Amino acid sequence: MDKSVWIVVLNWRNGRDTVDCLESILAHGGGQVAGVVVCDNASGDDSVPVIRQWAAGRGVALPEMHWRDGRCEPDIHCASATASHPAFCLIHTGANLGFAGGNNVGIEYARRHTDFDYLFLLNNDALLTPGAIAALARRMSETGAGMAGCKVVYYHTPDTVQAWGGARYSPALGRARHLGAGAPIGQPCGPSDVEPELDYILGAALMVSRECIDRIGLMEDRYFLYYEEVDWATRARRAGLTLAYAPDAVVYHKEGGTIGSSAKKGQRSLLSEYYLTRSRLLFTARFYPWFVPTVLAFTVAKMLQALARRDVARARVGARALLGRPFGAGR
User: Fold this and answer.
1) DSSP notation for 11-68
2) Count of domains in the chain?
3) Bridge partners of residue 118, in order along the sequence
4) Can you give the three-state secondary structure of 239-307, one letter per residue?
5) DSSP character for 195?
6) Long-range contacts (CB closer than 8 Å, 24 or more residues apart) made by 297-304
7) Gap between the Cα atoms of 207 and 188, Å rounded
8) Per the domain annotation, does 330 fall within a domain?
9) What CATH code is carried by the domain that includes residue 207?
């Protein structure tokens, strides 16, 4: 029997990418996708009207709810799935809750109102391909894994891999290396090559079992951005759950469409740089406190490198994160 899957898509000021993402779900999600929860993190732009217009044009019922005090108002079920598409709903989270906080609203809604086997977090700047959901669910079922990732490919360079499922993490430095990064899309690499190396699944396309969520809880929202999936996977692994990789599942990722989170450090936005530094320190203190000195040294070295490049602004936001100051606090 096929396992049922619900998808959570988080939007923040990026409605047109979200519509492309939702269109890919309609086209390629397959019969296992029972429902889609779209969470809007108080975008304040034209995102919600754009999403509403798309739904109306596609004949998709899109009930809307508001998240208040830990529950939806009105607290209703999604419209029923039809023969042509899964159920959809739109939840207004009420504030910019960050990546974890916004996705957690969708996860919690699905837990309360649906009987899913797996939940799939899909970035709104990512696109499904045919068979991706089925391949992920199949690998999860075969392995009994708590989480699984797919082959994530750069949308703008579709012959190049961003990651085979996820990454290897170095706690001594507080940084990660995406497995398969830069490899040609056709390069063979199976689960036996990737799964022993996986420390976490890339948050852009992450499938998680209901059992895993019930055992370890939601994502940690103190990070706001970055390290949420590292934290989640670390907790899963420490609870005895495994991570899996489905090479036949492919997702195209525009990468950093919302906040400029490019993997190329010179192109990374200052906001992205700030939260990357802040979250690295928070995660290390929580899970690897004995590595705090080395991670601090690594962080300071990065700031000095920025100064050597005369990138004063980047060094400044690193210092703000290091000192626990807000992103926009003075000069």
Assistant:
1) ESS-HHHHHHHHHHHHHHS-TTEEEEEEEE----SSHHHHHHHHHHHHT----EEEEE
2) 2
3) 5, 209
4) CCCCEEEEEEEEEEECCCCCCCCCCCHHHCCHHHHHHHHHHHHHHHHHHCHHHHHHHHHHHHHHHHHHH
5) G
6) 298/173, 298/174, 298/175, 299/174, 302/277
7) 22
8) no
9) 3.90.550.60
Quick one: 163 and 293 in the same domain? no
**Which amino acid, one-letter code, is at 279?**
S
Which tokens hold the place of 36?
């889609």
Query: In this predicted model, what pLDDT tens digit does every residue of 95-135 receive, in sequence order?
Result: 999 999 999 999 999 998 888 999 999 999 999 999 999 99
d(CA 209, CA 277): 30
- Under the banding of pLDDT at 50, 70 and 90, the label for residue 80 is low
Residue 141 and residue 101 in one domain: yes
My answer on whether 75 and 222 are in the same domain is yes
78 plus 191 within the same structural domain: yes
Tell me the sheet residues that pair with 121.
8, 206
User: What whole-number distance in Å separates Cα of residue 309 and Cα of residue 215?
Assistant: 46
Local structure of 192: helix, strand or coil: helix
Residue given tokens 């000069």 in the structure block: 331
Residue 253 near residue 153 (C-beta atoms within 8 A): yes
- Closest among 33, 32, 244 to 146, alpha carbons compared: 244
Q: Let me know whether 28 and 142 are in one domain.
A: yes
pLDDT in tens, 15-69: 999 999 999 999 999 989 999 999 999 999 999 999 999 999 999 999 999 999 8
Q: Which of 324, 331, 232, 236 is nearest to 281 (CA)?
A: 324
Indicate if 304 and 212 belong to the same structural domain. Answer: no
Give yes or no for a contact between 219 and 122, defined as CB atoms under 8 angstroms apart.
no
With residues binned 3-state (H G I as helix, E B as strand, rest as coil), the percentages for the chain, rounded to 5, are: 40, 25, 35
Same domain, 150 and 18: yes
pLDDT value at position 266?
52
State CA 311 to chain mean position distance: 29
Same domain, 161 and 31: yes
pTM higher than 0.90: yes
